[in-house]
Amino acid sequence: MILTWLYAPGDRPAVVAKALGCGADAVIVDLEDAVPVSRKEYARAATAELLGERPPVPVYVRVNALDSPWGGADLNALGGLRGLAGLRLPKISAPEQIGAIADRTGGVGLHALLESALGVERAYEIARAHPALRGLSLGEADLRADLAVSAETGLDWCRSRVVVAARAAGLAPPAQSVFPDIRDLEALAASCVRGRSLGFLGRAAIHPRQLPVIERTYLPVPEEVTAAEEILSAARATPGALALPDGRFVDPAVVAAAHRTLALSRRVVTR
Fold first, then answer.
1. Rounded to an integer, what distance in angstroms lies between the CA atom of residue 252 and that of residue 217?
2. Over the stretch 227-237, which tens digit does the pLDDT of each residue have?
3. Is 228 helix (H, G, I), strand (E, B) or coil?
4. 75, 85, 161, 251: least buried by Cβ within 10 Å?
5. CA distance to 7, 110, 116, 160, 201, per residue, from 119 (Å)
6. Sign of the alpha-carbon torsion through 17, 22, 28, 30
7. What are the pLDDT digits (tens) for 22-66?
């Protein structure tokens, strides 16, 4: 279960190397927004060199959009590398884009970033476009601009849409988009609490100091673990729907949620 995804710019190999040792569950090497045009080729070459061998944590690469001058070269350079865990695909707005990219990358896991109103509107079609697609996420900065949204709650419908689409297509719950203020950890925590309530699991980060906050917020607290254990104990003793002494109703959906809670709690022990 990946809870923390740490972005690092592909044209700065020293920063990428540091990111690999920061404790993130996965690192996203960015070839897109974080890299100026003059350094696109260098970033691609440096990332390909890095991924010639398996890094210590899973590494995903956010390539440039396929309709940009650099996207096709990114796919050609990275698709078959043994150290590549997956590709993050920006500005996806149609299911056909997923199939076209999957055909060029030999079955590597793909993650679609929805950054426009059209992409969000087609979220379910995109989510089930190809077996190589492993996840959906929002690109909230571009989406805000596309929708002319200023309030934080203005994207909540889009967030729920992506969560529902991923679930309906059998994909993992989406991770939250990045929180842009690396200094305000209190606001980050509050935003993560809200994201968790909407059905997200984990979050992308742009600075290592954000990682502990994200992880702490998304891991179950002891009370949640205890409640999950009580639910599973009751379900084992009395299969089928039942009510606990405190009034909580237990059915298969509640049992499944309890299993997820305990799986997340065990993650603390196994890391």
1. 26
2. 888 888 888 77
3. helix
4. 251
5. 22, 16, 5, 14, 21
6. negative
7. 999 999 999 999 999 999 999 999 999 999 999 999 999 999 999
Neighbours of 114 (CB within 10 A): 30
Spell out the SS3 assignment of 62-91.
Answer: ECCCCCCCCHHHHHHHHCCCCCEEEEEECC
- pLDDT tens-digit map of 124-163: 999 999 999 999 999 999 999 999 998 888 999 999 999 9
| Count of CA atoms in the C-beta half-sphere (13 A) of 163 | 17
User: Cα separation of 127 and 209, whole Å?
Assistant: 31
Query: What is the rounded distance in angstroms from the CA atom of residue 254 to the CA atom of residue 266?
Result: 19
Q: What is the pLDDT of residues 159-190, one digit of tens each?
A: 999 999 999 999 999 999 999 999 999 999 99
CA distance 82 to 25: 18
Closest listed residue to residue 115, CA positions, set 70, 150, 155: 155
Q: Does residue 124 sit in helix, strand or coil?
A: helix
Evaluate whether 34 touches 7 at the Cβ level (below 8 Å): yes
Q: Torsion over CA of 166, 172, 178 and 179, rounded to 10 degrees? A: 90
Q: What angle do CA 91, 95, 97 make, to 5 degrees?
A: 55
Rg (CA), the chain: 20
